Amino acid sequence: MDPKLVEVTQLFDRFKAAFKASNFDVCSTLLSQ
Questions:
Q1: Domain locations in the chain as residue ranges
Q2: CA atoms within 13 A on the CB side of 28
Q3: Which of 3, 22, 23, 30 is positioned for an S-S bond with 18, CB 3.0–4.6 A?
Q4: What is the pTM of this model?
Q5: What is the C-alpha separation between 22 and 4, in angstroms, rounded?
């Protein structure tokens, strides 16, 4: 797999996990990257 795609997938997984935990501070931090 493309390394960049792996990186984006991992970032998205972290975002989903944070969103499920209602951790909006983490969500906004990830979105601002």
A1: 1-33
A2: 4
A3: 23
A4: 0.49
A5: 27
Phi/psi zone of residue 10: left (φ > 0), alpha (ψ -120 to 50 degrees), beta? alpha
The amino acid that residue 21 corresponds to is: A
Tokens matching residue 27? 């969500």
| pLDDT confidence bin for 16, thresholds 50/70/90 | confident
Report d(CA 13, CA 17) in Å as an integer.
Answer: 6
User: d(Cα 23, Cα 5) in Å, to the nearest integer?
Assistant: 24
**Spatial separation of the C-alpha atoms in residues 28 and 8, rounded to whole Å:** 16
| CA–CA dist 2, 18 (Å, integer) | 25
